[in-house]
Design brief:
Blueprint lengths: L1 H24 L17 E7 L6 H9 L8 E7 L5 H6 L5 E5 L6 H10 L5 E4 L10 H6 L7 E5 L2 E3 L6 H22 L11 E4 H7 L7 H11 L3 E4 L5 E3 L5 H14 L6 H27 L3 H24 L5 H9 L1 H16 L12
Parallel strand pairs: 1-2, 1-4, 2-3, 5-8, 6-9
Antiparallel strand pairs: 4-7, 5-7
Helix pairs in contact: 1-10, 1-11, 6-10, 6-12, 9-13, 10-11, 10-13
């Protein structure tokens, strides 16, 4: 029975690796859109904030200095803060509109209120701890020249990728996410954007609005794409983000995301990540241990072939990441057991409808 199970798993894994290799070696060649660089619609940038006194000023300075006509943009901070966040925002009242709440109402409500009061025809959202580049707005709004595009989003880059073992692994994970987004766009597969680097038409928001979900950005994008609307991944509109620096915070983050996210949005991402970094190494270890005690030439052949294809596909993926760092990929592989356990825990939580408590992070 175990022989049959491992034969099936290794055979499915083999097919998966062949498919991944095919996509990596022969990515779909679709003509890139050509957009006019002199396109400046009025935009509203919405920044939800809660107790961000340590980072909000740097974020505001970056947003204010973005290379975009001053009369064509507005910055709105919606704050549920009890620390000095509001005081810092008021220093920049000439450039920033501050909406204050006396108590915490949730990020989804903050986004909706900010957008409701926004003047822009195009809405951009980001987080209070994100660093945007000078040309961020230009790149993110340019695709809206195509009237069929309703939402755009860009990739994130970790602020401190070499801080420790975890940040190195997450750097590679995010690189994989960006590769999957790019290929998914070429394949016209639905994909979720990130609220820390997203833009959309206000007319679309009026119909779908943000809802009370842990991953409100994925939920918002999911409903837009589910209804047949078109999105665009802007590969060069990168922002710098922060990530958990310890395993406890990483677990809490991943469980929340896995528990609440709409997985059908990221089928291609799951195909690459789950097979390449979670499923195969874990089951591969099981196969190896089993082969030590039981001799099965067919199983051994499949396993060896899987190992070869796994190494080839992983090297190719590493070469397609922004850092081209094989070591970061190896860091992620070593974390696969933890990620695998996170997936199992998320499934158990969903089966028992257990609640996920929101945890505030201090990095």
């Amino acid at each position: 029975m175990i022989d049959v199970f491992l034969l099936i798993i290794n055979f499915l894994s083999l097919i998966s690796f062949v498919y991944i290799l095919f996509i990596l070696i022969n990515p779909p060649k679709i003509k890139k859109e050509k957009f006019d660089k002199d396109y400046f619609p009025f935009v509203s940038i919405i920044v939800p904030a809660i107790n961000e006194e340590e980072v909000i000023e740097r974020t505001l300075k970056k947003l204010i200095s973005v290379d975009y006509p001053k009369k064509k943009k507005e910055i709105i901070v919606v704050s549920d803060s009890t620390d000095r966040t509001n005081e810092i925002c008021e220093k920049y009242k000439k450039f920033v509109k501050l909406i204050k709440h006396s108590h915490r109402e949730g990020k989804w409500k903050a986004l909706n209120e900010g957008i409701r009061k926004a003047k822009g025809e195009i809405i951009l959202t980001t987080d209070a701890d994100v660093i945007v580049p000078k040309d961020w707005i230009k790149k993110l709004v340019r695709p809206f020249q195509d009237k069929t595009i309703k939402l755009t989003w860009g990739p994130g880059r970790i602020k401190n990728p070499n801080f420790n073992f975890l940040t190195k692994a997450q750097t590679f994970f995010i690189d994989l996410d960006n590769i999957a987004a790019k290929i998914s766009q070429q394949l016209e597969v639905r994909y979720a954007g990130s609220g820390s680097n997203m833009a959309f038409r206000k007319s679309v928001w009026k119909k779908y609005k943000f809802r009370n979900e842990v991953t409100e950005d994925s939920d918002f994008a999911y409903r837009i794409f589910k209804n047949g609307m078109k999105g665009y991944f802007v590969e060069n509109a990168q922002v710098k983000i922060r990530v958990p620096l310890n395993l406890s915070d990483l677990r809490s983050q991943q469980i929340r995301w896995l528990h609440e996210s709409h997985l059908d949005l990221k089928l291609f991402l799951l195909w690459i990540l789950f097979i390449s970094t979670y499923l195969f190494p874990t089951l591969g270890l099981m196969t190896l241990i089993y082969l030590i005690f039981i001799k099965n030439s067919l199983l051994l052949s499949l396993f060896v072939l899987n190992i070869v294809l796994f190494v080839i596909s992983y090297v190719l993926i590493c070469l397609r990441t922004s850092t081209k760092n094989l070591m970061n990929g190896l860091h992620l592989i070593s974390l696969n057991l933890f990620y695998f356990l996170f997936v199992i825990e998320a499934i158990v939580r969903m089966l028992f409808n257990s609640k996920i408590e929101w945890k505030e992070y201090k990095y």
